[in-house]
Amino acid sequence: DGVAALFSGACGAASEGAMAAAPAAVIFLHGSGDNGDGVRDWLHSVSGGQFERRLAAVGAKAVYPDARAIPYTLNGGRPQAVWFDRQRMAYDAPEDRETLGRSIAQIDDIIDQLVGEGIPLGRIAVGGMSMGGCLALHLAYGTGRHAGQLACAASLSTFLQQESALDQAASERFKDAAAPPLYMAHGAMDRMINPAWAEATRKRLLDVGVPAPAELPLFPMAHEMHPQEVEQLTAFLVEHLGDKS
After folding, report:
1. Residue 109 is among the residues annotated as catalytic for this protein
2. Which end of the chain has fewer beta carbons closer than 10 Å to its terminal beta carbon, N or C?
3. DSSP letters of 136-162?
4. Is 223 in the active site?
């Protein structure tokens, strides 16, 4: 039901430690026009297979859902696989809360499926690239049903709209409660999503109680993923999903 692949280290046999570890999962969300298989293969290529192998070593599987094809304004209104519509690619463009809400519900349902398999909410992470990273922020800190309860979140090369529903939801939720850890990163030469938009997002997240990094990690790249970035992402996920017993 929207899950493109369940990938749990097929590129390398799980160790006895991985088999014994408590179950965990990472939901990683692709960018606009891509799909779950595409971002899975991209992470595999950039990391040399280490992304899935290191997750498997701590008992975590990766789940790569597919966005549904919807009429996309930036594609001339033609259907495209995107998590939500955009009127403009701009920081001050309006947030399309109807299409965003549908995708939040879609991934919340996948989280419910994982919980039904016996994986605790506190051992499920959500992350994504570009538009998928934005959706991950909403799931972990905004209006998602499980916001505030997940293990951690990661957002690569993304931003929140200037007037986003997340800000108010997070400020209320994390007034007296700790928010899950967050990994952020961006390309210094990104011409699709201005690094300044990501920096403004980082500051806003800190203002509403989300533990965004003290400085936005920038990598020498455009709108893509960098090997060092994916190495840091993997270490972050392993740290927060590893068995702490």
Report:
1. no
2. C
3. HHHHHHSS-TTTTTSSEEEEES----S
4. yes
Residue 87's alpha-carbon distances to 67, 84, 106, 129, in angstroms, are 18, 10, 22, 20
pTM of the prediction? 0.91
Tens-digit pLDDT profile for residues 127-141: 999 999 999 999 999
Of 103, 155, 190, 226, which is the active-site residue? 190
Distance from C-alpha of 181 to C-alpha of 212, rounded to nearest angstrom: 7
Given the residues 32, 47, 103, 130, select the one marked as catalytic: 130
DSSP state of 6: E
Of all helices (H) and strands (E), which one includes residue 129? strand 124-129
Selected catalytic residue, list 15, 37, 223, 243? 223
Over 70: is that where the pLDDT of 8 sits? no
> CA 118: distance to chain centroid?
21
| Contact assessment for residue 124 and residue 111, using Cβ atoms and an 8 Å cutoff | yes
How many Cα atoms occupy the beta-carbon half-sphere of 98 within 13 Å?
5
Per-residue pLDDT tens digits for 196-214: 999 999 999 999 999 999 9
159 vs 165: CA distance, rounded Å: 13
